[in-house]
Amino acid sequence: MVEVGLADVRDAAERIRGVAHRTPVITSRTLDAAVGAEVFLKCENLQRVGAFKFRGAYNAVSRLSPEQLARGIAAFSSGNHAQAVALAARELGSSAVIVMPADTPASKLDAVRGYGAEVVFYDRYTEDREALGRKLAADRGLALIPPYEHADVIAGQGTAALELFEEVPDLDVLVVPVGGGGLMAGSATVAKGLDDRVRVVGVEPEAGDDTKRSLVADERVNIPVPRTIADGQAANIPGEITFSINRRLVDEVVLVSDDELRDALRFAFDRLKSVLEPSGASGLAALLSKRVPSVEGARVGVILSGGNVGWKRFGELLG
Amino acid sequence: MVEVGLADVRDAAERIRGVAHRTPVITSRTLDAAVGAEVFLKCENLQRVGAFKFRGAYNAVSRLSPEQLARGIAAFSSGNHAQAVALAARELGSSAVIVMPADTPASKLDAVRGYGAEVVFYDRYTEDREALGRKLAADRGLALIPPYEHADVIAGQGTAALELFEEVPDLDVLVVPVGGGGLMAGSATVAKGLDDRVRVVGVEPEAGDDTKRSLVADERVNIPVPRTIADGQAANIPGEITFSINRRLVDEVVLVSDDELRDALRFAFDRLKSVLEPSGASGLAALLSKRVPSVEGARVGVILSGGNVGWKRFGELLG
After folding, report:
1. Is the pTM of this model over 0.90?
2. CATH of domain A54-144
3. SS3 of residue A319 by DSSP
4. Are B275 and A266 inside 8 Å of each other by CB?
5. Which CATH number fits domain A6-51+150-318: 2.30.110.10, 3.40.50.1100, 3.40.47.10, 3.40.50.2300?
6. What are phi and psi of B33, to 5 degrees?
């Protein structure tokens, strides 16, 4: 059993200090009035690479041996984890090979290559990226950094919640997006480790409710590949490690529809002047659409987990 | 002669404490690399009402007598000052009447009315809004709060720069958007008051270069009404009070084109995950387009002055 504790998150916070951004916490009286609560938004869309993923990737890469850093790192991801590993490798004087779909948008390829990483393509319709990533890592002697199934990655992701509690110590509720469950596991470890009475709420897109179903079944449930605009939360089964933590620490998981995500993107743009990607807005969406029960009068922390969406795609999403 | 000093800004900072947001200062390594400097961005787009204007309006309204607050406040503005005065009046238990153009977009009307203010329309092609505002104030016994020609407004606007220097004490350069000159005058008062060696640079849109021309001529120059996407900077002559301060304290004013403003809006969206209106992006635009000389290796503060632009208009601006 892989264990992650508050001390591991505190250690991760020391490792990322001065490298990751300490992102701001913002508030909005308009939001507070709409929700009927005091809401504190942790802006991980302002993190390096535009998402919380840099925290976990950097923490994991920084724990590799000098020999391993010299050999290099591998990852498979079409999303923010790819950029996070590429940048973490560069920051630590290593090199990275990222396995990405052949149809990855040019902007994402440019970002990963801009951090100096090599990209290896796979066909997302015929090839298994995880198997490919593992083979590549084995063949070349690279350390594979998975997006969430890794204690150091989970501990790193937890540092966002740790900073939020340092700034706003007396939160009653913490609302966190759930994809593979790494951010959720790290955040729940922090919240419950600091104060067992904090209510920890995960948010999934309606189509990607694998963690919610798994909590109900009390075992990992595999669902069809979700169709949702929240591409960062399109997991079809929780991770083994992340679920073992989340089943113990998460009080409940609520769901949001794609339309509720769109409303939250619009609210964030118009009222918070903040660019969020759909996954990054799911906590905000859950609050705005009253999906989180019993928050009236509470102090509620929300992790806005990422903002990687181009303005053209953003316009298409909002119609 | 109206004087504004650092002590006035410090007093204003006390008055707005806990009412205005202390907005975050953000950094971006991508931006630093593009500019060749260390850049610190003061996010007044995250201020209440979405722009720095709330600082000055609140400071000015808070200095009115109880009798005056009971009678009420007047302002004329089609922009962020309207919302700022409306909200400041509400916060201080007063009432506001705002003179606005008959063709004001519904979203801006809704915002002003949402803060409980009365709106009086005028025809921008046939009527003089300032004369109308003054007559209305005189007829009803209201205190007129002008958008920049007022010592308390200028001192209030200076609090954004004061907070920036508190957070980043050793800035070499401060870059500030110039419209009527209130933000510029308050910011310059702070920068030069704290350290005479700080270089203070104003930014105007190319079409709205009244302050730059006025500094060259060493007297207030009246230009044709500017056509620019930076509607918050479409002044055609500097204020008397603001120019008397800025001629003394501002080292130089640089210009940005509308296309450079568009590039900055896009950069802010894609890389800073921040929504800016064109005027609010002018300092960023000046840096990105290398309009500010001699910043290599310097520590540069920039005030991102506002973010009030709907996402549809934003998409139109970027084409």
Report:
1. yes
2. 3.40.50.1100
3. coil
4. no
5. 3.40.50.1100
6. -65, -40
Q: Is the ipTM of this complex over 0.90?
A: yes
Flag if B50 and A273 touch (Cβ within 8 Å): yes
Nearest Cα residue in chain A from B274: A274
DSSP string, B258-313: HHHHHHHHHHHHHHH-B---TGGGHHHHHHHTT-S-S-TT-EEEEEE-B----HHH
Could you tell me if A277 and A22 are in contact, meaning their C-beta atoms sit under 8 angstroms apart?
no
- Longest Cα–Cα distance of chain B, Å, equals 56
Q: What is the pLDDT along chain A (319 residues), one digit of tens a residue?
A: 789 999 999 999 999 999 999 999 999 999 999 999 999 999 999 999 999 999 999 999 999 999 999 999 999 987 899 999 999 999 999 999 999 988 888 888 988 999 999 999 998 788 888 889 999 999 999 999 999 999 999 999 999 999 999 999 999 999 999 999 999 999 999 999 999 999 999 999 999 999 999 999 999 999 998 899 999 999 899 999 999 999 999 999 999 999 999 999 999 999 999 999 999 999 999 999 999 999 999 999 999 999 999 888 999 999 8
Chain B positions touching chain A (beta carbons under 8 Å)? 21, 24, 26-27, 29, 43, 45-46, 48, 50, 266, 269-270, 272-276, 307, 310-311, 314-315, 318
All CATH 3.40.50.1100 domain ranges of chain A, comma separated, are 6-51+150-318, 54-144
Reduced to 3 states, what is the DSSP secondary structure of residue B6?
A: helix
| B273 contacts on A by Cβ (under 8 Å) | 43, 45-46, 50, 274-276, 307
